[in-house]
Fold this sequence. Notes:
By secondary structure, the chain is an alpha/beta fold. It has helices at residues 10-21, 33-40, 51-60, 70-75, 97-109, 126-137, 156-161, 173-183, 198-229, 233-241, 262-275, 281-293, 296-305, 331-341, 354-360, 370-374, 394-400, 415-420; strands spanning 2-6, 25-29, 64-67, 79-82, 114-118, 142-146, 166-170, 193-196, 312-316, 345-349, 365-366, 379-382, 405-408, 424-426.
Amino acid sequence: MKIAVIGTGYVGLVTGAGFSDFGNDVMCVDIDESRITKLRNGEVPFYEPGLPELVRRNAAIGRLRFTSNTAEAVANSELVFIAVGTPSGEDGSADLSYVLEAAKQIGQSLSGFTVVITKSTVPVGTADRVREVLAAVASKPFAVASNPEFLKEGDAVNDFLKPARVIVGTDDPRAAERLRELYRGVLRTSDRIQVMDLRSAELTKYAANAMLATRISFMNELARLCDAVGGDIDAIRKGIGADPRIGPKFLFAGAGFGGSCFGKDIRALLHTADQYDVQLGVVGAVEAANERQKRLLGDLLLRHFGSLRGKRIALWGLAFKPETDDIRESPALALIEQLHDAGAEVVGYDPVAMPNVAATGGPATLVANAYEAALGADALVLVTEWHELRAPDFSRLKTVMRQPVLVDGRNVWSPTEARAKGFTYFGIGRP
């Protein structure tokens, strides 16, 4: 099938490369000429395991191409995916200006019947607005569909090629059939396509992220209670995760969630509910709990030292999660500001995210390796649990740190081993 993908950000590039890998002819569009040039040279503008190889392989055989010419891409396609950004406004609403501008350009470029699909995460009712924009400028027939993405950063290629489910929202049987045909190569072993109305599809994406965020904030709240009463959040996690009605995923206590999805989508969901005069008390509590959690590690250090003025604090891990260079709403950024405001010197290390952190101009010194960050530190804080940081050499750390204080913000280190090596160890909700 001939496909155009508008937007070569995280979602758009994974989508375009993924569909091309299943034998489709895909043209990805971006208004950023420098990004298009890099992609044509095989350079992926962000870190995502497996994606550079997928892009280069399909570009080399001509199934994946890149352009800044929307009209050219759309005119040659039977399916057009909108995968542009939907940043949060000041009131928490999703900014749809990029989506609607893309729809306008698509409508002006149609050459025959085309299915226009929103892949971007958009609030309920966006498909109706896209249809209105298209109808105002299009001279050819079209159908509108919603096909929300469910990609985990750090494992997005696998999520796309082997999806747990594919949500298709449309009121047009032709669009449903085209999308079923498109995904047939992705879902060869079983039919995991769920076709529903447009508004339900749009809401499904927000509901999924809100549910996952709820599990994280719930466990972080329980971890605070564990600290107060002497419980062990790891034991509780295993106990409730063994219940098949609950399951073990997204039950790890930590420093709070970040990234491009959870926070933004929760705010957008709350904004939508407010527009319809519906109170989402649970969702609002999830957001509040996460903002509190991002201050937990800094508060813990303040309680331990009394004052952080003049203290050198090392941070391991700056991306919002392992296997990505994405620092959007990362707990590490909030912690850097909190520690700096308290008078501490902050030294950070991350395997891939440091260029993005440096670009923010934040008050942290970035160094080339983990143990250099710990040199002369009064405390070492694990913020992001990269594999290379999960099993530190405690003996080596003891010799390079000024004070032997460890704060395990992801509960991956052994408290017993750390304390046996002479460290003061703090975890999240664990003794």
